[in-house]
Amino acid sequence: MSFLRALLGRSKPAKPDLDALFGLPSAAVTLEATAGFQPTGTGSVAFRATEGQAFATLERDITELLNADNGPAVEPVADDYGYTWLVLRAPEGAESDVSSLVTDIHAVNSSLESAGYGPSLLCSLVTFADPKGRRVALVYLYKRGTFYPFAPLGGQRRDNALELQTEAAIGNDLAVEKDKSRWFPVYGAPGL
Description:
alpha+beta; six-stranded antiparallel beta sheet
């Protein structure tokens, strides 16, 4: 089978590595030290929701689990493309605790994956801002197992220079997606 794949120029898809998310806290320290970007305390997970009671129950259980014991506020938001975003907001005063936010994002992804909804996962992101008001998100592509920066400017524009600067800053902390055509814009992503 691998010979045929090589002959046709196809490669085996990368397997998602949710544990790669735990590299985000060190990338956050690097991003703050090199560019002055601090975590906003907001992250989100995007997935294509399925119809049916089983999925609705799973989504409700995840939300209740995260909302318990002073966890992050969780808000489901539907976008124009048919994806659901679970937006997690750290409690007031805990915005800089990227480790807890990442643990919660990992829990959402793991719960969906273990329930058989892994193919429905699109991406996860954690948002940062600098004193000038610029924002950048570190986006984890579930199906690729890689990260890329996304810096919106407003409307349907993005700050490519800031994205490249962010890539250079975090390249030693995270597996950055090499194929820049896969750095798709997430304009209007909830939490960004």
